[in-house]
Amino acid sequence: MTTITQTRSPQPVHQLIKDASHAVDRARKDDPTALQQISDSTDGDPFRVLISTVLSHRTKDQTTAAASTRLFARYPDAESLSKGNTRTISRLIKPVGFYRTKAKTVKKLAGIILAKYHGRVPEEMEELLSLPSVGRKTANCVLVYGFKKPAIPVDTHVHRIFNRIGTVSTKTPEETELELVRVVEKRDWLELNEVFVKFGQVVCKPIGPKCPICPLNDRCRYYREVYTKKR
Fold first, then answer.
1. CATH topology of 10-31+151-230 equal to that of 45-146?
2. pTM for the whole thing?
3. pLDDT band, very low/low/confident/very high, at 5 (cuts 50, 70, 90)
């Protein structure tokens, strides 16, 4: 069950996003996340964003980006991928996590996109969720990185960081999404995932977070209640 946080005004969360963005601005330019890289290089092609997001599950960004580049060089759209050889797809996307299973999944996805949607990825949440291997995080990534529609994709970084700070107190990414939708201004939704994925990679790491240099430590519950007590 979600633990409902105390109602907060949007401004403090907006400032958190702004400060975190400044802290990782250089890292975002030099080493963008895989989805941002795919979005930028394809003018936000929703199909490539969808397939890349599926490939990204349990896989590092650098691996996802490289695998996506190889895959789309051979199969650039839904029609070609739907007709692709599964073994060839597996070889192209290796070593993403569970690459053999994902090869079958992305081929199946391409077939559905081609047959049911005439090669165009749907841009409504309900239709996206009806696709195989597409949950809320993947659907929200497609909305944000593919269609530039305001949404909040919540991965492990976003879930971890906002719970550490104390903005939310939730058990699952799905619960975190519901809470963030409630407390974050819509103007910040498009940027939130990209900022905090990178922030989680370079500052608020899963293990060994860089609390002393974190620009959010003056507003962070983890810093007050855990880090400072370890010293």
1. no
2. 0.91
3. very low
Distance (Å, whole) CA 119 – CA 188:
30
Positive or negative: CA dihedral 176, 180, 186, 190:
negative
CA 62 centroid distance within chain: 14
- In Å, how far from its chain's centre is CA 225? 28
pLDDT at position 139 over 50: yes
* CATH code for the part of the protein at 10-31+151-230: 1.10.1670.10
| Domain 45-146, CATH | 1.10.340.30
Task: Look at residues 191, 113, 124 and name the one whose alpha carbon lies nearest to residue 152.
Answer: 191
What would the mean pLDDT of 42-69 be, rounded to a whole number? 94
Whether the bond between 95 and the residue before it is cis, its omega within 30 degrees of 0, is: yes
Please write the tens of the pLDDT for every residue from 185-205: 999 999 999 999 999 999 999
User: Nearest CA to 57 among 86, 97, 107, 94?
Assistant: 97
